[in-house]
Design goal:
This protein is an alpha+beta fold. The chain is built from four helices and seven strands; from the N terminus they run βββββααββαα. The strands form two sheets. Strands 2-1-7-6-5 form a five-stranded antiparallel β-sheet, with no helix packed on it. It is elongated, with a radius of gyration of 22 Å. The structure holds zinc ion.
């Protein structure tokens, strides 16, 4: 698999290739001035799938596609095309052409897009690996929970603001 490594505060350190079979304990991403240590303990499930972030140890990962889907645009243009022909406006050939172009892009996205795993806490991205079914898409509730857990300084600050606001 390959990993776009980030630090706890989200700084990009660069991409590294990691062999899941050998489980290296340290890597040196391109932009880093020191090694990043990898935590494999409990990070891989029985089936060999990654279930936790090996750079920060967080157990919350979400799946994400490397390319956005354009299917809504296909539907929109099809609708526009239908409307134009129904209203009997001049040739709708250009809409048909546009529809074909977007459809081709749509299929291309389906073929070439790769699903990746992203760590909620540090934002490290794991690509080119088998992904277990239990990983879900990004969930704002989980993201919020992690921010609250991870940033006691931040929540203190918010609490203080609240108090100042009410006094
Ligand atoms: Zn992480």
């Amino acid at each position: 698999m390959h990993v776009d490594v980030r630090t706890q505060d989200g700084t990009r350190l660069g991409r590294v290739k990691i062999d899941q079979a050998t489980r290296p304990i340290r890597v040196r991403p391109g932009n880093a001035d020191r090694d990043t240590f990898l935590e494999w303990e409990n990070a891989v499930d029985d089936a060999g799938h990654l279930r936790a972030c090996i750079t920060c140890g967080d157990r919350h990962l979400y799946r994400s596609r490397s390319l956005p889907q354009v299917t809504p645009f296909v539907a929109l243009i099809a609708l526009a095309g239908a409307t134009v022909s129904l209203l009997g406006f001049a040739t709708s050939t250009w809409i048909l052409n546009l529809l074909i172009v977007v459809l081709v892009i749509d299929i291309g996205v389906l073929v070439f897009a790769r699903t990746r795993l992203v760590c909620y806490r540090c934002g490290s991205i794991y690509g080119n690996l088998p992904i277990a079914r239990y990983h879900r898409g990004w969930d704002p509730a989980v993201a919020e929970k992690i921010v609250n857990e991870e940033d006691p300084a931040d929540s203190n600050r918010l609490g203080r603001q609240d108090r100042e606001g009410t006094s």
